[in-house]
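Journal club prep — side note

Before the paper discussion, L.F. wants everyone to see what a predicted structure for a comparable chain looks like in token form. Sequence:
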Amino acid sequence: MLNASPDLMVMMQAARAAGDGLKAHFARLTELEVRSKSGPADLVSIADEEAERTIRTLLSAARPGYGFLGEEGGAFEGSDGGHTWIVDPLDGTTNFLFGCPLWGVNVALARDGRIVAGVTCLPMLDEFYVAELGGGAWCNGQRIHVSSRGRLVEAVLACGIPFAGKPDHPLFAREMALLTEATAGIRRTGACSVDMAWVASGRWDAYWERALMAWDMAPGVILVQEAGGVATAVDGGPLELHGGNVCVSNGAIQQPLMDVLNRVVAEGGH
């Protein structure tokens, strides 16, 4: 049974509160004001902003000295230089705004640059994932584990597909050319929170993406690690939370997957 720390307890409370608010907005999507951020395919709504305010209010009340890094509000240093909340209030915004239920709330805690706790709430799927360093990974109160499949040809992978305004389109096309014939299937949900949680729970065997922010991946990293999997950079090197890319897997297929992904880079993605 999960023995959650006080920090994890407030993270869970904040994620649930934000998820409840987002569900209410999801029920009346036509009323939402939608804007573009960095480009026409990069969308934001008042739902994202309200969810982040909800999370920050609850986290700050519990730990006023911790720093805060949020997708919508940016970074704020706290008086406690060792701890930072990392928050994506609505991961999968495009899915959300198009009426697709595959979206989530991400809340993580970094201590001295290392993720020590993570929560991913998937409100429309009624799935609530939590993990804490040394405490295992859990979904709806049940312990979860990565899959045991050990051959790439038997594996189902998930990935992020670059959209308008994102880099590496030729590289991704080459990855697909090689991996679709070497695996049991490749999926794209459009929400990193979903994909990483599903690697942790054994639904997918691996997930990679080359253009991510820390708030996209932070909870998923510890979820996968505490579920028995591995998290690295997309080239197989040590994961850097602010490095912009990630690959998580059950561990057994990590090296064969790295071999393909690194071959694509070596060939220039053509």
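L.F.'s comment for the group: The domain at 6-143 is CATH 3.30.540.10 (Fructose-1,6-Bisphosphatase; Chain A, domain 1). Keep this in mind when we get to the figures.
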